Amino acid sequence: MKYRGLIYMFFFVYLLASCFANKVHANEYQDSFIETIKGCLNAHTKPSEAIVPEDLVIAQAIIESNWGRSRFATEGNALFGVRTYNLSVPHMKPKDNPDVKWGVKRYKTQCDSVNDYIFIISNSHHYEEFRKLLLQDVDYIQLANALKPYSENKDYSKILIKVIRFVVMRNT
Predict the structure, then answer these.
(1) CB 48 within 8 A of CB 42
(2) How confident is the model at residue 15 (pLDDT cuts 50, 70, 90)?
(3) pLDDT of residue 1
(4) Using CA atoms, how far apart are residues 14 and 155, in angstroms rounded to an integer?
(5) Predicted local confidence at residue 46, as pLDDT
(6) What is the distance between the alpha carbons of residues 123 and 120, in angstroms, rounded to a whole number?
(7) Which contacts of 28-36 are long-range, i.e. CB under 8 A and separated by 24 or more positions?
(8) Which of 30, 64, 105, 172 suits 88 as a labelling partner, its CA being 20 to 30 A distant?
(9) CB within 8 A of 87, min separation 6: which ones?
(10) Reduced to 3 states, what is the DSSP secondary structure of residue 84?
């Protein structure tokens, strides 16, 4: 057993190296996801719709799609978990609750999902307060608090604020 220490050291170095490699890969994936959302926002050219701050859109996409890795995102390009009760619209049902009376909308592209999100934020009565705040010089905390209706999670605004801070730090 004179090699036990050497084996442990080799295993430890291997573990550290693999963790570092996975972190680098995760950062590249996250950067790519953020750039995809930015590209969709840059391509969105409907001046009649609200101009939602980029960091907020990215943060919501991160939360709602788990960095684009959720089943709804990978199979249906659904980055924001938009529900539809019109089941003639392309949609997906939750695997754990297939009998619900709604589905999560499917999209041809991720940019179609971003465009629909902006349309909803721009037109739904649920986000009237949010749109009023957009016209004022307010910070992202106030905007995030105005998006409480977006989720059934009572802590959604707090989560959104934390993710926005992460996105802002990452982009600086």
Answers:
(1) no
(2) very low
(3) 52
(4) 39
(5) 85
(6) 5
(7) 29/67, 30/67, 30/170, 33/61, 33/62, 33/67, 33/68, 34/58, 34/167, 34/170, 34/171, 36/68, 36/110
(8) 64
(9) 102, 103
(10) strand
Q: Is 159 exposed, middle or buried (0-12, 13-18, 19+ CB in 10 A)?
A: middle
pLDDT at 152 over 70: yes
Query: Alpha-carbon torsion 129, 134, 140, 142, what sign?
Result: negative
Q: Tokens standing for 144?
A: 């995030």
pLDDT digits (tens, 9 = 90+) for 28-52: 889 999 999 999 999 987 878 888 9
Instruction: Show the 3-state SS of 49-76.
Output: CCCCCHHHHHHHHHHHHCCCCCHHHHHH
Q: What global pTM score does this model have?
A: 0.82
- Residue 167: burial class (beta carbons within 10 Å; 0-12, 13-18, 19+): buried
